Amino acid sequence: MNLHFLKLSSYTAPAIVESPRMDWIEYGDKNDYFKYLIDRYNGSATNNAILNGVVELLYGRGLDAVDAARKPDQYAQMKALLSKKTNRRALSDLKMLGQCALQVIYSVDRSRITEVHHLPIESIRVAKANEDGDVEGYYYAKDWNKVNGKRKPTFFPAFGSSNEPSEILYVKPYRSGYYYYAPVDYQGGLPYAELEEEVANYHINNVKNSLSPSMLINFNNGVPSDEEQMAMERKINQKFSGSGNSGKMILAFNDNVDSQASIEPVQLSDAHSQYQFLADESMSKLMVAHRVTSPMLLGIKDNSGLGNNAEEIKTASLLFENTVIRPIQELYIDALDGLLAYNDISLNLYFKSLQPLAFKIAEIPDEVELSKDERPFVTDSMTEAITKDLDALGEVEDAILQDYEMLDAEDIGDEPEDFDVEAFLNGTSLAAQDTSVQDTDRFKVRYVYVKGTRKSPKDSSRELCKRLVAAGRVYRKEDIIKMSSDGGAEDQGQQYSVWLYKGGVNCYHRWERRVYRKKLNKDGQPWGGGPLSGTKKINVNEAIRQGFKPVKNNPMVSIAQIDLPDKGHK
Fold it and tell me: Rounded to an integer, what distance in angstroms lies between the CA atom of residue 80 and that of residue 343?
């Protein structure tokens, strides 16, 4: 007789294992507790919906700064250093897995941080603390199941603890009784996530794998061998299991009444009510564990009065924002403050809220009013001064492609992960020349004027932007600076920088960097053929491996003015 029961696994808290054989601390009995949490995310519909909703609220509309208008250079540096992808992924780990990790990469002389990347927290294990109780580093492995004597994890020092070119900033909240790892803030709800998952699995298996209704089949003509039992089980499953076979007749042929097989229904008393109770209880307890003040905030409909009472929803939203969302955001921002301080960046950071406009909370307590001294739109006279020698400046791209092949164009919002192209540099004016100081023997660097990250209103482009786009030329940095210096293009007595400010307040355009590599024959000699003949497009990372070292620009260059917090105002 083969009996099947709904088996609910016994729940245990995560084990923190300190093995004398390892230099790191294992998380879970099999060093797989992060995987356990990910499985609870994937397996429980309610837990999945809550976590997705909370992460969206945590990131909101992105990281911003109260004092961005007063510190535009610092703000631009921060934006170049901390990408949207890095922040979103780090916040996801912080909520779903209880902690997050950032890889910090320094300049060669360690004078500043040049890159910050997210590292999946499930790939990180904490190194054993030293005699003073301080954690001096972390171990990284893409797959910890494959770590052995030959395949060892990579060690990274903790942020601020070494002189190494790369360190790890580990962000976690304080939890009493936990030193190396922090439990998730919904730890008490995990049994119910597992319960909901098991109930769902029971129902789906009941539909897919059992007869309908559930039956106990007794064979009364003796006990067959193990092989015969297995053969009968396979034949019954093949003929009658699955939802498509429901309602079919069963024909049985017997020698006599005494030896006939008996089929008896196996019914769970009040099954519908019992499983409905388990489902409702799981959802309710998961809401409590996540401190969800109203399921409607996360797109989950229930039967509470909050679904029809706007005032109650508003109250629940504000409460959830202030008691759940902001504490996690502040934990992450506190970590970023320490990181940015290394680059002498001091900003009052916050995440722009996703709260409905009808009852949007005050995002920041001390919002700074924009200065009335605003940068004007580029005037007609300024446009004429800037563009009077436009045809004499720059190059036609097709002419470059006679001897060069173009690498991928770069957008600051879509940079390769291991390459920070837009860190801060001074904007020194450079003399015009045939080549650019950004060029090398093998590579050319040029810029093209393109539409920025937002869709600009139809037919609203300024004359300057129209002319730069219509020119269809690529420019050296020197050419762009020369546009400003020639002809006396001025803004309130100061030279106007087309390089940094493009078309001025609310401009939707930016400068896009394009990198070209000199074509070579098989013998390594310069190419003498036609445009793009026999060429292969490669990305920037490949160019770097071939020796290309891009000169770094002010991050303002590749950001449209409309995307700055002050829209380009001074």
Answer: 12
Rounded to whole angstroms, the Cα distance separating 300 from 2 reads: 39
pLDDT in tens, 289-330: 999 888 777 666 665 544 456 677 777 888 888 889 999 999
Rg of the chain (C-alpha set): 32
Residues 6 or more apart whose Cβ sits within 8 Å of residue 30: none
pTM above 0.85, yes or no: no
DSSP state of 383: H
- What pLDDT shows up at residue 526? 63
Task: State pLDDT tens for residues 38-73.
Answer: 999 999 999 999 999 999 999 999 999 988 888 888
Contact predicate 136/157, CB 8 Å: yes
Q: Strands, E, within 73-199: which ranges? A: 100-106, 113-119, 124-126, 137-140, 154-157, 166-171
The Cα 538–Cα 524 span in angstroms is 18
Four-point Cα dihedral 326, 328, 329, 330, nearest 10: 80
DSSP letters for 247-307: T-------SSSTT--EEEE---TTHHHHHHHHHHHHHHHHHHHTT-S-GGGGT---SSGGG
Q: What are phi and psi of 423, to 5 degrees?
A: -75, 170
CA-closest candidate to residue 349, choices 336, 362, 368: 336
Q: Name the token pair of 542.
A: 């490949």
* Residue 284 confidence class, pLDDT cut points 50, 70, 90: confident
Tell me how crowded residue 134 is: count the other CB atoms within 10 A of its CB.
Answer: 9
The string of DSSP letters for 307-342 reads: GT-HHHHHHHHHHHIIIIIHHHHHHHHHHHHHHHHT
Which has more confidence, 82 or 367? 82
Domain boundaries, the chain: 16-186, 215-265, 380-563
> Six-digit token pair at 322?
């202030």
d(CA 95, CA 326): 12
Could you tell me the two tokens for 154? 């990579």
- Any idea which residue has 């409309």 for tokens? 562
Contact 427, 496 (CB under 8 A): no
Which strand ranges, in their side-by-side order, compose the sheet holding 509-518? Answer: 404-406, 509-518, 443-451
Which strands, in side-by-side order, build the sheet including 137-140? 124-126, 137-140, 154-157
Strand partners, 126: 138
**From CA 179, how far away is CA 133, in angstroms rounded?**
10
Condensed to tens digits (0 to 9), the pLDDT of residues 65-104 reads 988 888 888 999 999 999 999 999 999 999 999 999 999 9
In one-letter notation, the amino acid at residue 197 is E
Query: How far, in Å, CA of 306 to CA of 320, rounded?
Result: 14
Look at residue 526 and give its three-state secondary structure: strand
Cβ contacts of 270-274, under 8 Å, gap ≥ 24? none
